[in-house]
Amino acid sequence: MGRTKRIGILTAGGDSPGLNAAIRGVGKAALGFGMEIIGFRDGFRGLAEDRRVKLDKNSLAGILTVGGTILGTSRDKPHRMLIDGRVRDMTNVIIKNYKANKLDAIVCLGGGGTQKNALHLSRLGLNVLTLPKTIDNDVAMTDSTFGFATALDIATEAIDRLHSTAHSHHRIIVAEIMGHRAGWLTLGAGIAGGADVILIPEIPYNVEKIAEAIKRRSRRGMNFSIVAVAEGAMSEEDARAFAAAHARRDRSRTLHDKKQAKAELVALDARHTGNTLRLARQLEGLTHLESRVTILGYVQRGGIPSPTDRLLATRLGGACVDLIDDGVFGVMVAARGDGTDPVPLEKVAGKRKTVPFDHAWIQTARRVGTSLGD
Ligand code: F6P
């Protein structure tokens, strides 16, 4: 009988519903194998600062339905961490703490950025596994991510409720939905909530065409509309400017040019709510219907995880511990149908899963007459 295995676990990136369900899934499965489970606070920062908490049956009890993460989270990267006012590469400190804690593996719960950070540590010899977490559903090589289902419920309910004020006041209600640079959450909630217009980053929009769709509704007596707009959605003009700035940054050779191109990209970054407010004003001018904006924001990441997310997070957590017991490392535990699939981190890191132009959900939206702004 070898030494008791010690598993580290951390949560990184944006919080999301289901994180505690996943921590519980990993923890209870590990305890079932007779392993020890050690939580690290606030993402990779806790690993660098060796801030840890021993997880046992008591600390895992009752967290299945709790929002957020009991460990805390951060967007800190192992190789670029602000410590005492200086940006430092903490990779070697993390490796030292991993060994000092006699860890046999570290499980990282996170989205796209976490997959990249996990690969970085895996290549340096740590036994790393990840679980795909984000409300954006934009992690590659997995059917879905936990957090997405709950956010879909929340955003859909918000759209349901916004219909009341739209038809009572004969208004255009523009609801901005999260998703970073992918349109999954907006497209899904827009279809489920019956939005009349759905705008996603993958399909740059034409304001005149949106206005025409809204006016067509008015002519049929439906003098109100719901516009579900992804925080990363852009007009055709902005999308062209964004692509050009990207090309300039990729071509730029001097630090000055790189900095200038990056500044352009930040300015154009469509996640800023300014685009949504501008779109609402433009539509009001073109349709002569009053328009109002609702930014759903962090409500989409809060509260009790849905049963779908609890089931997914628990499934992935249990499968992760099986892989550790089998000595499988350097993988993301992907959701695949009713099961799971260990995908090498090299195939996941640095990739973003966006909505394909011909995706079934796109076809569904068009079939029921939704305008996608194109
Ligand atoms: O990745 C999840 C997410 O909520 C995105 O949808 C959103 O763009 C981003 O996080 C917000 O980041 P932050 O929590 O750092 O403000």
Please give a quick description of this structure.
43% of the residues lie in helices and 17% in strands. The chain is an alpha/beta fold and 374 residues long.
Please give a structural write-up.
There is one protein chain. The chain has 13 helices and 13 strands. It is of the alpha/beta class and 374 residues long. The chain has 2 domains: 6-146 and 305-347, Rossmann fold (3-Layer(aba) Sandwich), CATH 3.40.50; 151-301, Phosphofructokinase domain (Rossmann fold, 3-Layer(aba) Sandwich). The strands form 3 sheets. A 7-stranded mixed sheet has the order 3-2-1-6-7-12-13, with helices on both faces. It binds 6-O-phosphono-beta-D-fructofuranose. 6-O-phosphono-beta-D-fructofuranose binds next to loops.
Mean of residue pLDDT? 96
Helix/strand order:
EHEHEHEEHEHEHEHEHEHHHEHEEH
Question: Judging from the principal axes of the Cα atoms, what is the shape?
Answer: globular
Q: Compute the number of helices.
A: 13
Helix content: 40-55%
Ligand catalogue = 6-O-phosphono-beta-D-fructofuranose
In angstroms, what separates the terminal alpha carbons? 64 Å
Strand content: 15-25%
Structural class: alpha/beta
- Gyration radius, rounded: 22 Å
> What's the β-strand tally?
13
CATH architecture of the largest domain: 3-Layer(aba) Sandwich
Strand order in the sheet with the most strands: 3-2-1-6-7-12-13
| CATH class placement of the largest domain | Alpha Beta
CATH topology of the largest domain: Rossmann fold
- Uncertain spans, ≥5 residues at pLDDT below 50? none
The major beta sheet can be summarized as: 7 strands, mixed
Structural domains: how many: 2
